[in-house]
Write a structure and sequence with these properties.
oxidoreductase activity, IPNS-like_FE2OG_OXY, L-ascorbic acid binding, alpha+beta, binds fe (ii) ion, oxidoreductase, 8 helices, iron, binds 2-oxoglutaric acid, 5-stranded mixed beta sheet, 8-stranded mixed beta sheet, 17 strands, Jelly Rolls
Length: 377
């Protein structure tokens, strides 16, 4: 028996096992394990495939200046160069930084501060101040994608909820944490600003990819019905970063993700370079810049002109790290149609909610396979 993992704080999770039976499981709260100063990594967090944790540091993370892309603000040539940078980054890795995005630093700091405050609360208070999400996939305060009793767990505590469209009061869900009291206000301000940026990027990406109709992606989004889910990820210091992973490899099912991080900025997030199958660490990420991640729905919409980023998060020994991910998707019932391809089409039309349901059904996976759902065989 692993006495050092004994912990009175648990996340409770339910899932359907391979035979379709409902299982309930208790999962240790990683933040509490770290608070107790655990010296050994409990077996449930050990990865057998940890030899692949080696990585290259990515020195020159492309950073696209959105102020330059805003029409009329710069010469045509400077703007064309910035567009080319955007296309390059989207095509090669599916992630890029954005600077001069127009979101005031105080709004960004405001969102990061309420998240830090939330995680500083004692476990019982955190648990008491968030709603219950038992009927929604991978939502709420807890762990990611737990699907079996013997699956290796991620070294993470996370809180996921839908920010827009707003959840009505009479629904069973209470999505916003009640503490700190300004959590909702600060996060809504950030989400509102980020939405403007993501809409701008959808148009800029179409232009950068030389698609004639610059609204070909944005047209699927709706001012009220489009979804923005917020996932707050907290990675406490880990006794064995060589054996555990913070967030298992994955692509995001949405169209675009915008990320900001806090705590350690030196390392954590990695993205797979498809050209040579090496993991690149995103280490130079200034606090005022946001990281954009191309998601699966965008890969489908673009008919594979760009691919969603396959990414993961490593843990660190003595430092904590956190991130806020905003996942942007068209309304669930939207049928998205891939842009016309010169050669034979590679992606099929899909209804957003069908794709997302499939994604959650098969996740977590070691390879990028959920996307095959929308590929022409
Ligand atoms: O923590 C990070 O930087 C990445 C988080 C992430 O990939 C996600 O929440 O989907
Ligand atoms: Fe992600």
């Amino acid at each position: 028996m692993e006495t050092d993992t004994e912990n009175s704080c648990y996340h409770q999770t339910s899932f359907l096992d391979e035979k379709g039976s409902l299982k309930t499981m208790k999962i240790p709260v990683v933040q509490e394990l770290a608070r107790q100063g655990l010296k050994h990594l409990p077996d449930r967090f050990k990865r057998l495939d940890s030899t692949t944790f080696s990585h290259q540091v990515f020195e020159e993370m492309p950073s696209v200046n959105l102020a330059i892309l805003k029409e009329g603000s710069k010469s045509m040539m400077v703007r064309a160069e910035e567009l080319a940078k955007l296309a390059d980054a989207a095509r090669s890795l599916g992630v890029f930084l954005i600077k001069d995005h127009g979101i005031p630093l105080e709004v960004l700091d405001g969102a990061r501060d309420v998240v830090k405050c939330f995680f500083e609360l004692p476990f019982s208070e955190k648990k008491a101040c968030v709603g219950t999400y038992s009927d929604m996939d991978n939502m709420g305060y807890g762990q990611n994608y737990v699907k079996s009793e013997d699956q290796a767990l991620d070294w993470i505590d996370r809180l996921t909820f839908r920010a827009v469209p707003p959840v009505e009061d009479d629904e069973r869900l209470r999505v916003w944490p009640l503490k700190p009291t300004n959590f909702r206000e600060a996060m809504q301000r950030y989400v509102g600003e980020a939405r403007v940026v993501m809409n701008f990027l959808l148009v800029a990406l179409a232009e950068a990819l030389m698609i004639e109709n610059h609204h070909v992606f944005l047209k699927y989004f709706h001012p009220i019905e489009s979804e923005i889910k917020v996932r707050v990820n907290y990675y406490p210091p880990c006794p064995r970063p060589d054996l555990a992973i913070g967030l298992n490899q994955h692509s995001d099912p949405c169209a675009l993700t915008i990320l900001t991080q806090f705590g350690s900025t030196q390392q954590g997030l990695q993205v797979l370079n498809n050209k040579n199958q090496t993991w690149l660490t995103i280490s130079s990420w200034p606090q005022d810049q946001l990281l954009v991640v191309i998601g699966d729905l965008f890969e489908i919409m673009s008919n594979g002109l760009v691919h969603s980023a396959w990414h993961r998060v490593l843990t660190q020994k003595d430092v904590e790290r956190g991130s806020i991910a905003l996942f942007y998707s068209p309304p669930p019932t939207t049928r998205i149609e891939p842009v016309a391809a010169e050669e034979e089409e590679t992606y099929k039309k899909v209804v957003v909610e069908d794709y997302v349901r499939h994604y959650y059904k098969v996740s977590p996976t070691m390879e990028k396979i959920a996307i095959n759902f929308s590929k022409v065989n």
